[in-house]
From TrEMBL:
It is found in: Membrane. The keyword Mitochondrion does not apply. The chain crosses the membrane at residues 21-45, 65-83, 104-123. It is a multi-pass membrane protein. The gene is sdhC. It comes from Phaeospirillum tilakii. CDD domains: SQR_TypeC_SdhC (cd03499). This is Succinate dehydrogenase cytochrome b556 subunit.
């Protein structure tokens, strides 16, 4: 086998992203999503302070189906980021570094984020 015949490694057709790497990337993405959500919250608060017409417009936008989907996504991002931040606090204390522990805590993070989001939306409605 010559040097030219060897595949590049790892290439996208065979590389499987580790679960912990997906969680790490997701943590960063949810941080950005929360920043956008904070801007939307600021818009809603300014609309509330600007008077009934502005507030009615903001409520119509955020109360629409696409608005509620975005709000759901933002709340999921918030709870995921919160739970993963708690996971990182355990790591800062030196706990959970083994691969098996990291995968278990990652699954617990995702499950907790889903449960907390569902709970918040259930209580909200």
């Amino acid at each position: 086998m010559t040097k030219r015949d060897r595949p590049l490694s790892p290439h996208i057709q065979i590389y499987k992203m580790p679960f912990t790497a997906v969680l790490s990337i997701s943590h960063r993405i949810t941080g950005v999503v929360m920043a956008v959500g904070t801007a939307v919250l600021a818009y809603w608060l300014v609309a509330a302070a600007s008077g009934p017409d502005s507030f009615a417009t903001a409520q119509a936008v955020l109360g629409s189906v696409p608005g509620r989907i975005l709000l759901f996504g933002w709340s999921l991002a918030l709870f995921y980021h919160l739970c993963n931040g708690i996971r990182h606090m355990f790591w800062d204390a030196g706990l959970g570094f083994e691969i098996r522990d990291a995968q278990r805590s990652g699954l617990a993070t995702v499950a907790a984020a889903l449960v907390l989001t569902a709970l918040a939306w259930t209580i909200g409605f």
